[in-house]
Amino acid sequence: MAPISVNIKHAGKTHDVQLDTALPPAVFKEAVYNVTGVPVDRMKVMVKGGILKDDSNWAKIGPKAGQTFMVIGTAGELPKAPEKPIVFLEDMADEDLAAALERPVGLLNLGNTCYMNSTVQALRAIPELQVALGVPSPNSSSSSSAPNISGTLPKPLRDLYANLSRTSDAVNPASFLNVLRQVNPQFAERDRRGKGTMVGMGGGYAQQDAEECYSQVLNSVRDVEVPDSLIHPGVIGGTGGQKKKFIEQYMMGEIRRELSSPESPDEAPTVTIEKIMKIECNINSQTNYMHSGIMSALTSVISKTSPTLGREAQYTQTSRITRLPSYLNVHMVRFAWKADVQKKAKIMRKVKFPTTYDAVDLTSPELREKLLPASRRLQEIEKERAERRKVRKRTKNAPAAGDPSTVVQDSITAGEDVTMASAEPGNVAGGALEDEEIYRAREKTELEALVDPDLRADVGASTTGLYELVAIITHKGAAADSGHYMAFVKKSVFHGPPPTLYTGPAANDAGTTNPESAPTRTADSNAMEADDASAPTSATITSPTGIDQSKQASSDPYAYEDDEDWYKFDDDKVSVFPKEKLSTLDGGGEDSSAYVLLYRSKEM
């Protein structure tokens, strides 16, 4: 049946509206909203038999052409035409589509290459690495201005990350894989059992250890320098022109090992300082928690010849960390050599790992003294932020806290005396919350005063000793030379704020896989840049159903802090992994067990 023309009377005005009885009443209400500005949830349309409901039957109402319906309700702001042109998903380019869908893409398995795929995905949790590599932003069509990086592997890794950010389909990592096998020949080992045959490559490649691949990839990019965009201007002048290496600054710590023998107390302890890229969590029959396994690995007993006793003696090696990097790698030692079967076997014991880790207990007394003031205060601030989020959620639909008229009106209704101060703008009445930005600025100033100057000047060092878990590599199976590897990356890595970029050459070129991570030009580590009015406007992204996909939670720039879910990367399959299931990765069987954990330092 063709639509009929009816009249709508509201606030003394009459409007002509088309009514299609083949469509539900909700569609008609939407048309009424478009001409009257009365929101659907506050609208009452008077029809035959009472008020029009969403499940009302048009056949019983029997509307006729030219009939007038009365509308009751307070009008709000009339809907405006979209400021940006509407673009449907099927009409978008691959780069725009990838940005619209937001969900990251996976990597094709080329035959026992899950160890490499999980490594590449886990390293995406380090956006500063992509800045150092010069990964172009998704909306850039050329990487000609990328920094000149040395080494064989960094360039293919940069290209792979660029491809991952510019498509909505799984990426073939063949180019990166070939270079990886050239640089590290152990990953070109053939499968003697004849499994994992790769089509067109003359035979199958053997399964490899993801932790070994993770370490080798990091070693292969050790010559990549820290770009000036990641260094605070106040620090650049003190480097003496010597470029710092990214891996050394952001992912390597220092550890002091003290070797002494209780059998020879007169013998002076031997102290050595080493650089480390990971800390190990030893797993034995008593290990239930990651922290206890790490502490066990930091204290060990070895046998060696004593120069003072002239014989073999027992020595105790005590290790403590003297520098904590921004990114802390934890290796769960789940594979051990079994002499009776002459092969590596998997330790399936369940070991719980935290999503927030306090590494201060692992440090030397000197470093602990520098970390504690900012560390303890940051923990208190995080509790205060959590409480504020709860309050804001409870009062989300309440009137604005800073509206003086609301405060005065509520007081009059309650019969209370009203003072002039309570009605003045800017005063927070009744314990109402201030804008979150005010709290954050105050917290930033307070924490900056507590950070030790030596730690602040150390580029890429943790200034708090507090870490949050951002990526996990897991192993599924019972044997070390088989099974399946997967990666899990926290969603906030992709949808949270980008790393702070300062003025410098790389600030104009480098980007990250996050479409929102356009290089900034601010020296404020917590500043949130407003949209540049002079920048070209992008198209509004709309799905085939007409839903605007470009709307972000811009009203709350800290909404990502509430998103504790993860992305699960199972080769080319990417899915959302709820935070409630994270404990299933503790181990305890042949299912996926945490093998490599990547923690990011919590800063201001």
From TrEMBL:
Its EC number is 3.4.19.12. Residues 386-407, 500-559 are annotated as: Disordered. The keyword Hydrolase applies. Residues 105-602 form the USP domain. InterPro entries: Papain-like_cys_pep_sf (IPR038765), Peptidase_C19_UCH (IPR001394), Ubiquitin-like_dom (IPR000626), Ubiquitin-like_domsf (IPR029071), UBP14-like (IPR044635), USP (IPR028889), USP_CS (IPR018200). Keywords: Hydrolase, Protease, Thiol protease, Ubl conjugation pathway. SUPFAM superfamilies: Cysteine proteinases, Ubiquitin-like. Residues 510-525, 546-555 have a biased composition (Polar residues). SMART domains: UBQ. Residues 4-72 form the Ubiquitin-like domain. It is an enzyme of class 3 (hydrolase). Belongs to the peptidase C19 family. This is Ubiquitin carboxyl-terminal hydrolase. It comes from Lentinula boryana.
